[in-house]
# Entry
Amino acid sequence: MAKQILSFTVNDEPVDVLVQPYVTLLDALREDLGLTGPKEGCGTGDCGACTVHLDGKPVASCLMLAMQARGHAVRTIEGLGAIGALHPLQDAFVRLGVPQCGFCIPGVLMAAAAVIAETKHPTEEDIRYGIAGNLCRCTGYTKMVAAISEAAAQR
Amino acid sequence: MSSVMKTTRDVRGVGLSIPRPDGPEKVTGRVQYVGDIKPKGLLHAKLLRSPHAHARIVRIDASKARALPGVRAVLTAADIPELKRKAPTRAHAILAIDRVVFSGQPVAAVAADEPSIAEEALDLIEVQYEVLPASVDPLESMKPGAPPVADTGTEADTSEALAHSAVAMAKSDDAPAKAVNVSQTAHVKRGDVAKGFAESDVVIENTYRVPMVHQGYLEPHAVLAEWDSTGQLTLWASTQGSFNTRSEVADVLGIEENRIKVIPVECGGGFGGKIRALCEPITALLARATGRPVRYVMTRREELEAGMPAPQVIIRLKTGVKRDGTLMALEAETVLETGAFSGTVLAVAAVFLGSLYRWPAFDIKGSEVLTHKPSVAAYRAPVAPQTIFAIDSQMEQLARKLGVDSAEFRARHLSHPGEPMVNNQPWASMGAPEVLQKAAEHPIWKARAEWKASGGNGHGLRGTGLSLGGWLGGLQPTGATVRLNPDGTLAVLTGQVDIAGTNIALAQIAATAYGVDIDKVKITTGDTDVAPVTGLSAGSKTIYTVGVAVMQAAQDARKQTLEIAAGELEAAVQDLEIVEGRVVVRGVPDRGVTLAAIGKKGNLYMSKIPPVLGSAHPAFTQQAPAFAAQIARIEVDPDTGEVKLHDFVTIQDVGKAINPLAVEGQMQGGAVQSLGMAMTEALTYDDSGRLTNPSLLDYRKLTAADLPNLETIIVEVPSPAGPFGARGVGEPPIIPAPAAIANAIHDATGCRLTELPLTPERIALALLAR
# Structure
């Protein structure tokens, strides 16, 4: 199959990249753009490890074709904050000792960023439902919820 | 050790909640897992797997796949001279030769330029199967005439038990003629069980069933393999133990360990499922066949269908007590379903059934049974949650029958340190009594009558459940080095795979044992070429054993440092202490030399001062059992059987919390895995042995929305041999919840459920049958 040009915005930068029409957004980000922060935990939209933002909304990038992102703005974990300039969520996750194996963390953070962007003062329930699509096997979620709550309050 | 404690009183080290230093890497997506590594010339591997649980392979034709452009290698059993017909482990059965023994077993392997090409190639491989009858249910599989699983002559694999240093247990001496699919048996007894039951006033018998469950790590198995021109193999592996991976791969491929370097890449969760080799040998063979780096990442479906889950455990348990509560007799038959290859930990069940409480007479039989399903492996405290589910459910029922407080009943009969276990070894120092005491005092437990009374009237049925469980603690020889750098900082090196944040705790141990602040300590996990031999990240033994190696290496480095300083300062070693980066004469703070000066002298051209290099490589004999109690406060919807978890408390003896933040993380994570086993998780198979729920939508793990905030209470009963009194932390919190939830449901509804998971369907049916 012939590759197609995908023009979109990734982490605030305009990007043109040649992709196969059948590749997922997750594979295009990871394999073609080298953004390996989003993870594939299931490939079927059940675990949330691949969560990125599409025009500010959280999506499972393993369930979207890359070409569906044409003309849209995508943000990955690499565009949330950086070492030395962490997003408040990232900072709280580090201080409260959230990450263990860390594989789910990029997806959880993107889901959480959407929660606190949408809701000024999220309740515990808002947070728990906001990250309910993200499976984590290490943490039991308690410290995660506390960190998101703290980051939301700090804004 | 007391002198170390005295001279390092102000050091920032052991006991502080310090976030792991690689946290920023993990929250920014910069940490690299195997699937993120992309060397030049990378090929992608895929495996063709059997759709049948048991079949003869009549013919394989891979010619069309080999001809597909972009395909670089296709391997079948015929292409692998290393393959042995009688595979002692699953790893040795790289590809099926002429018979498949579980659905999902690899039959052929492809390496191609793109994953999509490899996928397409799989479709072009023609395999003709002759389907054979399968042994799917373990109880059926034990019966004479059941379809045989193993090739005759295959030995029981007890290395899993050894890896976990479970317990020494005599093999069954009076085993009857073993049924064809029974791969291991064990039998322990003491006293006269028949007499005990005859003299009992209350006898309760139940059969408890816990299905196969998956460890559920978020990162599927993954490995990257590359050979260099001299025949050296490098494996970038997602493993819980790089040295173990090296040994297994060397054994399977028949090459020297020196020809293999295992680089432990960040591991996205293991929980016991990433101890044994699985896809490493075939990936290495594809790399050898192509002369290029080959990466294999399992799909989630493959993980669920053909990973190495926890065994199904079936326990028939009969217990008798006198009316005054005296324990009289216990009889148990335990069946562990091991799947297509032997490898369970049979002894764990016997220890906890027979010796958590003081049974004067017991008779416990265990069988490991082969079935045509994927072979099993460890899952965090292997067989302990399943066993505690049985024995603790039984204790709760006995207490209810006798009309006594169940926490007091447990406490009255709980074994104490020094008392004999089923294998006649004495219980080592342990804090089970203290943990149970704390649970009995907890406000949620004390208010259980009020909570129950508040149910109904528009609310669901309300109940509270308690359970106590533990883990004997793993042991494994291990090594560590501690170097003093020329600027006075410390470099700690082990081969320890850090999954949960153990490296920060090890660095804290080094800081305190040497006498510098934690920010002066860097810890590295080396590969198998450079690190001292290090054990597995498993069995709750990282801090307990590697922590000792690091502590001793740091003490060794400290001793060398003080000896050099003694020469420089013309003082006796015993008069020296390390204060704020300087070695000083005690009481004369002006007389001192900086650690940096000592470090520099060990690294100067023409210097006569040796570099400081502390090392330790201890082996261990003393286990440190660690216990946790959990309390669940729940509400059951009487119409749907749905359970809402209102509160959940984990109370755990950790000996000494080296890093309380990391300890809490372990307790909370373990608690949710335990709750998942209790309430939602089961690998389910149809009659032909095929998995019916091969996705994370259907294999239901708990989400944030299913759970309340989890309370953690740390209890510290110091272990005699652990670093600073620490015990293992990882295993205990996954153990009690199934019994705690079952007991809470019993409290709320009067129904006793004995089969996991405790789904709404099962609860609703039990309510209907009331």
